[in-house]
Design a protein that fits this description.
The protein is mainly beta and about 160 residues long. It has a single domain, classed as OB fold (Dihydrolipoamide Acetyltransferase, E2P) (Beta Barrel). Strands 3-6-7-5-4 form a 5-stranded mixed β-sheet. It has a 3-stranded antiparallel β-sheet with strand order 2-1-8. Strands 9-10-11 form a 3-stranded antiparallel β-sheet. The chain starts with a helix and ends in a 14-residue tail after the last helix. It comes from Alsobacter metallidurans.
C-alpha cells in the first residue's frame, strides 16, 4: 500500500464524515497529525547529533533497535530552538521508509474533526506550502502541517482538506 493510500485510509478509518488527529503544542500553537501516522509518543531523550545537518535536525536516537532522525519542529517552523522541559515529547511518526521523531512542547489530545470543519491553508507566501490545511473547532484553529514538505518522507495527504477554486 502506498503512503498516500495508507495516510488516506487512516483518515478514513474512523468515520467518512470525520478525521482523527493527534493534537500537539509548539510555542502555544496547536497542530494536528493523522493518528494513523503516529507510531508512539515518547518522553524526551537526548539525541546523537549528526555533522552537516540543518539546524532543525537534532540528531538520531535508537528506538528499540531502529535509528530515527529527530527534528525540532519549533525550529523547523522558524521559531527558534525548543527549550526542553518535563512536558517535551518526541512524536514518533511513520512517514515512509523509516520513522522520524518530532520534538514538540506537549501532546494535547486525540480528536475527531468533522470534514465540514476542515479549511484549506490561508493563501499566504509559504503558508500554503507548509500546511495541508486547518481545522476549526469552535474558537480554536488547529494547523495541519505538510510533514512531507517539512521533514521529508513522502507522506502526502493534501486531498484530505478541501481546496479552494
Amino acid at each position: 500500500m502506498s503512503m498516500m493510500t495508507a495516510a488516506a485510509a487512516a483518515f478514513e478509518s474512523t468515520d467518512s464524515q470525520a478525521i482523527r488527529i493527534v493534537t500537539f503544542l509548539v510555542e502555544g500553537r496547536q497542530f494536528g497529525v493523522d493518528v494513523g501516522l503516529v507510531r508512539e509518543i515518547k518522553g524526551w531523550q537526548a539525541t546523537t547529533p549528526l555533522p552537516n545537518t540543518a539546524s532543525y535536525v537534532l540528531g538520531v536516537l535508537n528506538l528499540r533497535g531502529t535509528v530515527i532522525t529527530v527534528f525540532d519542529f519549533r525550529q523547523r517552523l522558524g521559531l527558534g530552538p525548543s527549550p526542553i522541559s518535563r512536558s517535551s515529547v518526541i512524536l514518533v511518526l511513520d512517514l515512509g521508509r523509516q520513522p522520524v521523531g518530532l520534538l514538540v512542547d506537549a501532546v494535547s489530545d486525540i480528536v475527531d474533526i468533522p470534514r465540514s470543519d476542515l479549511r484549506p491553508p490561508p493563501e499566504m507566501l509559504g503558508v500554503e506550502e507548509a500546511l495541508h490545511g486547518i481545522a476549526v473547532r469552535g474558537d480554536k484553529v488547529i494547523a495541519l502541517p505538510d510533514l512531507g514538505m517539512l521533514v521529508g518522507g513522502g507522506v502526502q495527504t493534501a486531498e484530505l482538506v478541501p481546496t479552494q477554486h
